[in-house]
Amino acid sequence: xxxxxxxxxxxxAALYCRLSRDDNMDTESNSIQNQKKILxxxxxxxxxxxxxxxxxxxxxxTTMKRPAFQDMLKGIEKGYIxxxxxxxxxxxxxxxIEVGKLxxxxxxxxxxxLIAVSDGVDSDEGENxxxxxxxxxxxxxxxxxxxxxxxxxxxxxxxGIPLSPPPYxxxxxxxxxxxxxxDPEAAPVVRRIFQMALDGYGLQETAAALQRDGLYSPSFYWxxxxxxxxxxxxxxxxxxxxxxxxxxILSNQEYCGDVINFKxxxxxxxxxxxxxxxxxxxxxxxxxxxxxxxxxxxxxxxNLKAGTRxxxxxxxxxxxVFSGILKCPECGGNLNFHFNQGNHSIRYFNCSNYNIGLKKxxxxxxxxxxxxxxxxxxxxxRLTRFAAYYEDDFLKMIMGKFAAAAADEQSxxxxxxxxxxxxxxxxxxxxxxxxxxxxxxxxxxxxxxKMSKRYENEQQExxxxxxxxxxxxxxxxTEQTDVQHFLDxxxxxxxxxxxxxxxxxELIDHIDVYHQEKQNGVATQRLTIYYNCIGSFSVPDRQGIxxxxxxxxxxKGVALQYVPAKTWT
Length: 569
Hints:
This protein has 569 residues and is an alpha/beta fold. It is built from 15 helices and 21 strands.
């Protein structure tokens, strides 16, 4: 540093103190107090009577974006700080490039005297040849500490110990703080959010309901309990819930009792931003703590989220309990919910791929909602009655059906996986040929770049699908658990009198809707209901089980009757 000709006692001296958990000192408060005493004494000895303390307690030196540190720099730029005192150069920071800019450029440019007491540095006494080396060693210390922390976190994370703080709904176990227990105040709110999702409420609707009932948002709830968590606390609107918060809660697998470590990572100890980690790098440990949400419920909510459409009907913004589960057996597309423009009381679904100019589907697959509700309610009554009267037979049938369906699904995924692997190898070959053609001049650079980009994108999509399929093939749930959940759900709806979204979500996977066939003034509507776990199931003809019989008169004088499209026993 250059020497200054100014009066060394003129102006204000900034006494900067910093402490982080990595500094291996006794306690944070004592360490800051010790730094203050040392700096105050040094300032008096150097003749400075006007001093200001700037303190960053608990902030790492690898970042220069420290509140008090930035305030000190602003004071220097404004010209009223003429000297900076620190205990040692590592208090300024542990980034040798940034600290070097301060000592070699910023402080001399603003004619600021730097004194590092423990390191024996005083810029007014001339250059200190060891200062750059000290800065390098200070950064090396931070890097070494970060490396050790990563090793410890890796060992802890791979042993099933949660690396993240407990999510909303859980709290630290007082007896074992590294593990979680259910928070009796917050957990009921989490359960309510999941139940509202099953009942068909949207994210914004759920957030509005929680706000209307005066429930604290997670960030303010933690703040009210004295729990320090990152994020902005809105003290003016403590009950303000956002749809993004609801989405995050509904996506959190930890509510099933699981611990998931390494969901995020940082590229460097100098970068504090956390990046999402690919799922294959996660460490998942199931049933570590008590679940707030049953696994079957969580999985059903994920399925509902996957089938959620942002677009609603443009007439009333109303959705329907069957939205997302009605399928076209011809083209495989979803059926969309509509209103009759002349009479809004007539609600119906039809195929989304019909009459859109792409010729993907040749028929409307039109079905009225009131007719659909009658059919589904009757079929559920038939199913629940058969399960009640002939429980042993029903259990044997659905166990066999579940096993067959699981085997078919496994076989289908294996075939799909093999096809993707073959296609990936084909793309490698195509890319090699294209590269050779580019080198030989058969393909110009522009076309090579365009085609290679397309192949790279396709390979990236293939890689994601391969990872997902391999994960699905590895994660095979026990059939007994799924079947028992399905049986419990059936018994709950034995006396149901109306269709609800929760009923549809728990019992039905999807429904195939065939195009109506009209003959002699009677329209026949064929449907196939695919239930969760067991797929399509036609109730056998047994004593006490009513036959499927739905006949509705339409306003056009055409009778509409229901016929099951597929039979399985």
